[in-house]
Design brief:
The structure is a homodimer. With about 450 residues, the first copy, chain A, is α/β, with parallel strands linked by helices. Chain A contains 12 helices and 21 strands. In chain A, strand 4 and strand 5 form a beta hairpin.
Chain lengths: ~450, ~450
C-alpha cells in the first residue's frame, strides 16, 4: 500500500472556485438551456490551464475539445459532459441548485456529481500532476466534453467517427467513477447497449361494452399475450436468435465474475433486503447473480397500459393497448438485428397487428478488458487512494456511450472519479463529498503516473 | 297483423306530466342523492293511479312496492327502478338533465330512457288498460321499483327472497325494452351473470432501474403473463373447469340462435363495420356469431396497468401491476366457484403471488324460455305495435338482476318498453322518442290483454 497523499489546500480552493463557476450555469440539455454559454465557460477554464481549447459545432449542442500532446509520452483522453439534468422538483432542494453550496463536508448543486464535479476534478488532477512533475505535464492530454449526455448523447458516435484522428490516444478516463455504500471504489469495465421499443395494438375503433367479449377481440389481452410471449418467468428471452451473437466471456471476465460472487458479503443478499425482493430470477445468488447481472442481455417491460384502471369496475373491452420495452444488449448483439428478430417473433406468434416502433439511435454495448494495463493501474491507484481494494465489474447493468471510445477508438477506458452511492445524481440535493473529491482526484493522478511509468514524487509522501 | 291503435292524446299529456315530475328529481344512486325523496314521489304517483303503494326500507335505498290483485285474473309483476346514472359531463348536455325537454319528437333528460320513462309508460299502460276494460283493471298488478339498479342492485336478491310471497305473480315485465337501429323491437330472454375481479402483483418495494432486469422480477411482465394465461387468442377460456357447469342450450334456444344467424342482414357484418372490427373471434359470423355472443361465458380484461406510459422512454422495472377483469357467466355457472377456479388456475400456473379480490355481490346468470306463452304473447304484441316482427334473443351479452325474478320467483320475464338504440342512456342528452313511447306502451297493453285472454276492445281499432 502507498502512503496517503494529502490533497493540497490551494487545489481545494481551486476545485471549489471552478466548480462554483460551472454549477452557476443552468446547462440543461433536455431544455436546450445555456449550452453554448457553458461550452464557452468550459473552454475558458481549459485555456486558463494552458490547454488549446476549441468549440466544435455538431448537429446538437457544441463539443468542447482540447489537446496537448507530449512527445515520447502516452496520451490520455478524458470524456466528460457539461450538460445536466433538469433541477425540478425545485421545492425539494435545500439550497439553490444553480449555486454551489457547502455543508458538512459536502458540495451541493445540480451537476456537482454528474458531471461538472468530475470535469473539475480532472482539471485539478492535471494541475496537481504538473506540480508533481516540475511544472510541465508529463503526459499528453485530449479532452472531449460534450453537451448532450443527459439526452442520450445523440451525436457522440458520429462526432468520434469524424474526429478519430484528433482523438487518438493510448487510454481513456470515462466521465465518472463512484464508491459504493460501503465506501469501496468501483471499477466498471463495461456498459450494456440499449434499444427502446414501443408496442401498440388496436382492436376496434373505440372501446366496446364488455357484453361483446365473446366475439370482439380485446386489445388489453392481445398486448398482455404479446408481452408475455417475449420471455419466461425467470427472464430468459424467448425471441428466436436473441442470444445467437452474444460474445462469450473471456477467462479474465469469468474470473472477475467468480471473484465478485465469492465476496464475503453476497451482493444479492444485501440488494434483496434493500429493495424488497425475496427471490431473484432463477433464485440466483453469488456468482450466478453476478453473471446474469453483468453478462446477460434482457428484454425489460417498462410499462403496459390499456383500458380502465380506476376505482371499482368498468365493463369495457379496451380498443387499444400500449407497452414500452427496453432491451439491454451485450457485445456483439446488434440493435437493428434485435429489433428485426422481435418483429419476426411477434409475427410468428400471431401478433402481426402489434405495431412496433423504436428509438432511432440505440446505444451500443461495449466492454473493456479488465486485464489491460490501464485498468490494472487504475485499480491499483484506486486502492492507494481509497485504502481498500477496488471492486471490479465486467459490465454494469446500465448503459451509456462507452462504445465510441472503447470500440470505435479502440481505447482501454477506466471509470475513475469522485461520486459516491448516496450522491443523489439526477435528484434534488445532488452532491459530492470532499473526501471522495480528494481520493478520486488522487486516483486519477496516480493512474496516469503509473501508466506513464512516472514515480510518485518523494515530496508527495507523508 | 292487428290494426294500428292510436295513443290517446290525454295519455300523452299524462305521460309528459308524470315524467317531468320524476326527471326533476336528481336520484343518482352512485351519489346517494334524492333517493328517499324520489321513492316518495313514485309512491305518490302510484297512489294517484289507485294502487296501494308502500315504501320498504332496505340496507340501501328504499324500494317502492305496490300491489292490486284481481280475483280470477292473472297477476303481472313490474320491475323498474327510480335511480339514475350521474349526469356529468354536464357541459355535453343540450338542456338541463333534470328538466324534461321536448324537441323534434323526443323527450330529453336524465332517466328518460333509463328508467323513469319506462316506469311512467307502465303507469300509463295500466290507465289505458283500465280505460279499455270498463274502468277497472282486468288483471292483477304488483310493482317493485328499486333505487339502486345503477350501482348493481346490491339488495335485490335479498329483497326478493324476503318478499317472495307478496311478489307472487304469473309473469313479469322487466325494466325496459328497446328497438334496434333498424327500428325492430327486441325481445331479450336472458342476461349473463357477471363477477368483477381485481388482480394485483408486487415484485419489489419500489420501481427499480431496468439495468437490474436480468435479476429482478418485473411486475408488468408477471401481470401480462397471468392475464395472457387466462384465454386463447379467440377468447376461449383456459381456466380448468370453467365450462363444466354450462347448461346446454334447449332446442328452442338453438332454434332462436339459428334463426338469428339466418337473418337477411348478418348482424356480425353490420356490427363489424360500425365498430371497426374486421375479424371477430374465430372469424365467427351468422349463427356461430350469435351462439358465441348469446350462449358463451367469457373472461374479459377491462384494463391492465403497470409502470411507465408517458412520452419517450423510462428505463424502469415496475414494482407493481394491476388488472381488472369481468367474467360473464351463463346458466348454471356459479360466481363463487368460478372465482375459486380462477385462483387455482393462477396458483397452478406459477402466479400464486398475484392477489385476487372480487366484488362481494356478483350478478347471477338467468334465462327465460322464449316458448313460454308470456314471451310468445309479448313477441306478438310487439309485432302488432311496431309493425315488424320482434327480434328474439336467447341472451344478451350484458348483465342485470334478472335472476331474482326468473329463477328465484320462477317467473317468465318479458323485456318490453320504450327505448331505442340511439337513446344515449347513461350519456349526455339521454332521450326517448314519442313514436317508441306510443308503440311500446301499446305493446305492454296488448301483451297483458293477450296473456289474460282479453279481447282488444272494438273502440281501440281504427
Amino acid at each position: 500500500m502507498a502512503t496517503v497523499t494529502p490533497f493540497p489546500d490551494h487545489l481545494r480552493e481551486r476545485f471549489r472556485a471552478l466548480l462554483a463557476r460551472l454549477v452557476a450555469l443552468p446547462s440543461i440539455a433536455a431544455e436546450g438551456r445555456a449550452l453554448g454559454e457553458t461550452a464557452e465557460a468550459v473552454a475558458a477554464l481549459l485555456r486558463e490551464l494552458g490547454l488549446d481549447a476549441e468549440i466544435h459545432q455538431t448537429a446538437g449542442a457544441p463539443v468542447v475539445f482540447a489537446e496537448r500532446r507530449v512527445a515520447g509520452a502516452p496520451t490520455v483522453l478524458f470524456y466528460n459532459h457539461y450538460d445536466v439534468q433538469p433541477a425540478d422538483p425545485l421545492e425539494l432542494w435545500s439550497s439553490d441548485p444553480f449555486e454551489l453550496s457547502e455543508r458538512d463536508g459536502k458540495l451541493y448543486g445540480r451537476g456537482t456529481g454528474d458531471d461538472k464535479g468530475e470535469l473539475v476534478s480532472r482539471l485539478v488532477a492535471l494541475e496537481w500532476l504538473r506540480e508533481r512533475h516540475g511544472g510541465e505535464l508529463p503526459i499528453g492530454v485530449v479532452m472531449l466534453i460534450e453537451g448532450e449526455e443527459e439526452v442520450g448523447s445523440p451525436t457522440m458516435e458520429a462526432y468520434v467517427e469524424a474526429n478519430a484522428e484528433r482523438l487518438a490516444a493510448d487510454a481513456c478516463f470515462w466521465e465518472a467513477g463512484i464508491v459504493d455504500a460501503a465506501d469501496r471504489p468501483q471499477l466498471v469495465c463495461g456498459l450494456k447497449g440499449v434499444v427502446a421499443v414501443d408496442l401498440e395494438v388496436r382492436t376496434a375503433a373505440y372501446d366496446q361494452h364488455s357484453g361483446l367479449g365473446p366475439v370482439v377481440p380485446n386489445a388489453a389481452w392481445r398486448m398482455a399475450a404479446a408481452v408475455a410471449s417475449l420471455r419466461d418467468t425467470d427472464g430468459r428471452v424467448l425471441i428466436d436468435g436473441f442470444y445467437d451473437r452474444v460474445r462469450a466471456a473471456t477467462p479474465t471476465e469469468h474470473a472477475v465474475i467468480e471473484s465478485a460472487g465469492a465476496a464475503a458479503r453476497d451482493e444479492s443478499v444485501d440488494l434483496g433486503a434493500e429493495i424488497g425482493v425475496e427471490r431473484f430470477h432463477a433464485s440466483a445468488n453469488g456468482a450466478e447473480f453476478q453473471r446474469r447481472l453483468q453478462l446477460e442481455p434482457v428484454v425489460n417491460v417498462n410499462g403496459i397500459h390499456s383500458g380502465y384502471g380506476g376505482a371499482g369496475s368498468k365493463t369495457v373491452l379496451p380498443a387499444s393497448a400500449s407497452a414500452k420495452l427496453d432491451i439491454r444488449l451485450v457485445p456483439n448483439q446488434d440493435p437493428d438485428e434485435i429489433v428485426r428478430l422481435l418483429r419476426a417473433h411477434l409475427d410468428r406468434h400471431g401478433f402481426a397487428d402489434v405495431a412496433l416502433t423504436h428509438r432511432e439511435r440505440p446505444g451500443l454495448p461495449a466492454r473493456v478488458d479488465p486485464a489491460h494495463p490501464w485498468l490494472r493501474h487504475a485499480a491499483a491507484a484506486l486502492e492507494e487512494a481509497f485504502g481498500v481494494p477496488a471492486v471490479i465489474t465486467v459490465s454494469s447493468g446500465g448503459s451509456g456511450p462507452l462504445h465510441p471510445f472503447s470500440e470505435r477508438l479502440g481505447l482501454p477506458v477506466a471509470m475513475v472519479g469522485v461520486n459516491y452511492a448516496g450522491g443523489r445524481i439526477h435528484s434534488p440535493d445532488e452532491h459530492i463529498r470532499w473526501r471522495d473529491v480528494e481520493r478520486g482526484t488522487l486516483a486519477l493522478v496516480r493512474t496516469m503516473e503509473r501508466f506513464a511509468g512516472l514515480d510518485a514524487p518523494a515530496s508527495s509522501a507523508s
